[in-house]
Predict the structure of CBS domain-containing protein.
Amino acid sequence: MGIKSFQGIRKIVKKEFEAPILVADYMTTKLVTFRPDQSILEVMEKFAKHHISGDPVLDDNGFLVGIISEADCMKQISESRYFNQPILEKNVENFMTKNVETIPHDISIFDAAGIFAQHNRRRLPVMRNGILVGQISRKDIVIAALKLSGHNWK
């Protein structure tokens, strides 16, 4: 019996996953940052102007000391009405989250998704050697997953 089609020994091609999968590939690097001494009113104005819902709070040396979000502002709005006080009186330091969970820049978006699943956070500051280099949100992770959906995840 003859051989109909012989192509010879085939070279084994190793399929490599070349799509970017690190947090650093999808994080936001142009952040609106706040200072602990800024008023809550200024924060709310920047949230509205830049269409954001939260960002890091940095000290005078540029180190991360907290994060402020719309939820933190809601606390101020609620308290100002309850105690009949103007919103202008308070600053970021009184309402920001001080114990901030962060993630390293070089973890995969899959590991970041696991961190988001464990913690009830909408955004996480991204750090490199103790320095803030960006921020990633749950939405960024979803967008990254959509971009990778045509690839095999191994």
Summary: Residues 23-148 form a domain with the CBS-domain fold (CATH 3.10.580.10). Strands lie at 54-58, 64-69, 103-104, 123-128, 131-137. The radius of gyration is 23 Å. The first strand starts at residue 54 and ends at 58.
